[in-house]
Amino acid sequence: MKKLMAVGALVAAVSVLTGCSSLDRTKEESLNRAAGIEVTETPQGVGVRLPEKVLFDFDKATLRADSGPAIARSAVLIMRSKKPVLVEGHTDNIGERDYNMKLSQARAEVVARALADKGVPASRVNYKGFAFDRPVASNDSDEGRARNRRTEIVIIGESVDTVMGK
Q: Name one GO cellular component term (predicted).
């Protein structure tokens, strides 16, 4: 019986160490939706998009009280990899560029610190603000501007399969 339990413990340990081999992609996607984040494969690696409304109030760089699930879920995904992470802050094009650069930088820094508080080694995480230099939608509509106000996390050189399963 002890031998069987030892083998079971070994199998469990190997499963944990190998990470995502037992991950269910459908379940992972559901968990992401529930936390309000989007995960995609990008040319740089895995992108985790956190919309402004999930993390911040308009024109603020302080995390909202209800942003915990998005930060916690992002940390879980990041911890499935050992690769470096870049937290990017983005804004819409309303207002002066210098102001938006400071806001986007402050938001990226706040998210990087929150990830560290959730156990992501700070040595793996860099952050940078991009103001409105990298829009993902047109800034000509309210919907487009809302999509552009975001924080993105890039797990550099990683694959979606590693962090989300197949």
A: cell outer membrane
